[in-house]
Every structure is written in structure tokens, then in C-alpha cells.
Design goal:
It is a single chain. With 330 residues, the chain is α/β, with parallel strands linked by helices. The chain folds into two domains: 119 residues, Rossmann fold, CATH 3.40.50.720; 155 residues, Dihydrodipicolinate Reductase, domain 2 (2-Layer Sandwich). The protein is built from ten helices and 14 strands. Helix 8 crosses helix 10. One of its GO terms (molecular function) is nucleotide binding. Pfam families: GFO_IDH_MocA (PF01408). InterPro entries: Gfo/Idh/MocA-like_OxRdtase_N, NAD(P)-bd_dom_sf.
Length: 330
């Protein structure tokens, strides 16, 4: 089956997903939603699509089967809720929702629309290289700790320094370093090690009350995971998973590149595969399979949904610890 795809959001990540969706052969872009007709038309030119909507109801009734949502975090909830009510499958960019209350309401709605599938687009955990990391972690005798690093200077940080308040650094849009970049290593940690027993977040506050960078500590029964992330600087540190005498080194926890396993004799074993040209292709293929073959993939789908909801709760707990409140919070 080829899914008729509609998109909300016309930024670079949307373009990358549409290209991946087309490359997978499982989707065809047929409709674009944008607040401004000209913006939607400009986006559609690259894909020969001229069906642009500025009314969300008309967009959802345009004949699409699945919607990809890459709008600001704060509006995901209402857009996803409306899509599910129209019995549309949903792929929503991370962070999916502002808080657990929103997620609980979406879960209740999904229970009423049993044939609808909703996915959070955490592309890195669907990469073949991430599967290699999971396999190697399972083989390690003991996990003693881990450090995940993802700091990347945002093109919008210059705007912040100039006195503006870009969406990706604004509590108004349920954004900041934690929900924009921190979610990558946090997703990886929870996928690999499960939900932590306790969490702490040491945030570096911005003048608007959001976070520009921070360090999160995940405490597990026998080890801790330190997660460092930020949008106002560039880090070139590797991420590491520590065993006893062995260590797994990951060059980029978000892009999942350059995986090296050092055994007990300190011998290096290169494990990573060459990355795919478009890192969103694997998730596009996996999501299409789960939408098409619902009975066969029900267990794996439920695991993904549970993982997404767990990440949402942990993000909320971290914000609570740091005293960061979003307007969307009750």
C-alpha cells in the first residue's frame, strides 16, 4: 500500500522526511498544511504538489491516510488529537507532547480509534547502527555507567543573543534544550536501559525561563547515566557506555555514527555500518509496515508507544526538578 501523506510544517526536517518517505516507496505526498499559502506552495514545488491548505479541517478531509507533524511542540497536542479523530495515522516530531496530561488524553483517544497508529519520530533509535549498539550492550557482562553528549550550536541562538525569543528556545512553544536536543540522548538511554529509578536536571537557564543547556542524571539500580546537551555551544566529545574493562564508544548519539567497542584487552572493534544517505528512511519504512501489518506488528508498536510515553514522563520530571514550567502545563 502507498499511503497518501499530508504534512504540517514546512521546514528542513519536513523536507527530509518527505524525501525519505518517497525513497521508501511507501508514501506519496499529496497535501500540505501551512498558515501561509505562499509558504506551502514554495514547499510543494519541490515535490510537484499544489494542494495547499490553510484550514486544518479541510486539510484533514483532503483524502490523506497519514499526517507528518513538524510544527512547534506546543501545538502538537491539538493537531494530533484532531488527526486521530479523523482516523488518520500520525507521525509527530519529538517532543511529541508538552506533558503527561496531554499524552494521557491522546492514549485515551487512541483506545477509541483502534486502527489508528501514532508514532513519535525518534529516527535515531530506528537506525541500523542503533540496533548494533543494543546488541553489544546486551553482550556486555556488566554496565557500570554511561555518558551521552549532544551539544550543537543552534542557528537560532544568535537570535536569542540579539534579544529575540525564537520558538525552539521558548517555554511558550514548549521548547528549550531539553525538549529539542536533550530528547535524543534521553531516548537512547531509556531505549537501552529502561526507565530510570530517579532523575535530576541541572539546567542552565535563559532569561526567558527556558533552558539553553543542561546536565541530566539518570540513576539506575547499579549505575548512573550522565546526559549533557545544549543549544548554545558545540561539543566534540564522544558518548560512552562503560562495562567493567570494556567500553562502547559512540561518535554521535543522535546520528549514531562511529561505533567502536573496546574489549577487556583494549582492542578496538569497529562495529558501525555506513550510514544511509537519508537517516529518516528506516523509520519511514518501519512506520509504514506497522500501519499496514497491524496484527503482526502489534507488540512492537506497543513497545514504541510505551517508550514514547515513558520519555514524555521523564522529560516532565526533569523539568519539574529544574523548575521549568510550560504554559501548556495544567
Amino acid at each position: 500500500m502507498t499511503y497518501k501523506l499530508g504534512i504540517i510544517g514546512t521546514n528542513w526536517i519536513t523536507k527530509q522526511f518527505v524525501e525519505a518517505a518517497h525513497e521508501s516507496g511507501k508514501y506519496e505526498l499529496t497535501a500540505i498544511y501551512s498558515r501561509h499559502t505562499t509558504t506551502g506552495q514554495e514547499f510543494g514545488q519541490d515535490f510537484n504538489v499544489d494542494a495547499v491548505y490553510t484550514d486544518l479541517e479541510e486539510f484533514y478531509n483532503s483524502g490523506i491516510n497519514v499526517v507528518y507533524i513538524a510544527s512547534p511542540n506546543s501545538v502538537h497536542f491539538e493537531q494530533v488529537k484532531a488527526a486521530i479523530k479523523h482516523d488518520l495515522h500520525v507521525i509527530v516530531e519529538k517532543s511529541a507532547f508538552s506533558n503527561p496530561d496531554e499524552y494521557d488524553e491522546i492514549m485515551a483517544l487512541l483506545a477509541e480509534h483502534k486502527d489508528v497508529r501514532m508514532f513519535e519520530a525518534a529516527r535515531h533509535i530506528q537506525q541500523p547502527n542503533f540496533k548494533i549498539i543494543e546488541d553489544q550492550v546486551a553482550k556486555m557482562e556488566k554496565i557500570s555507567g554511561a555518558t551521552f553528549v549532544y551539544e550543537k550550536y543552534s542557528s537560532r541562538f544568535d537570535d536569542y543573543l540579539a534579544g529575540k525569543e525564537p520558538n525552539v528556545l521558548s517555554r511558550k512553544f514548549s521548547a528549550g534544550a531539553l525538549t529539542d536536543l536533550g530528547i535524543y540522548p534521553i531516548y537512547a538511554a531509556i531505549k537501552l536501559f529502561g526507565k530510570p529509578q530517579s532523575t535530576h536536571y541541572f539546567a542552565t537557564p535563559l532569561r526567558n525561563g527556558s533552558d539553553g543547556r543542561g546536565i541530566a542524571i539518570f540513576r539506575y539500580q547499579d549505575f548512573d547515566v550522565t546526559i549533557e546537551f545544549g543549544k548554545g555551544s558545540n561539543s566534540h566529545l564522544d558518548s560512552e557506555i562503560l562495562g567493567l574493562r570494556d567500553t562502547l564508544v559512540i561518535g554521535d548519539i543522535a546520528e549514531v555514527l562511529d561505533i567502536t567497542y573496546y574489549d577487556a584487552d583494549k582492542v578496538a572493534h569497529e562495529l558501525s555500518q555506513a550510514p544511509v544517505d537519508n537517516p529518516m528512511v528506516p523509520e519511514a519504512e518501519i512506520f509504514a509496515d506497522m500501519m499496514t501489518n497491524q496484527a503482526e506488528t502489534a507488540e512492537e508498536y506497543q513497545k514504541l508507544l510505551t517508550l514514547s510515553q515513558t520519555v514524555n514522563q521523564v522529560l516532565f520530571d526533569l523539568r519539574q526538578d529544574a523548575g521549568i514550567v510550560f504554559p501548556a502545563d495544567k
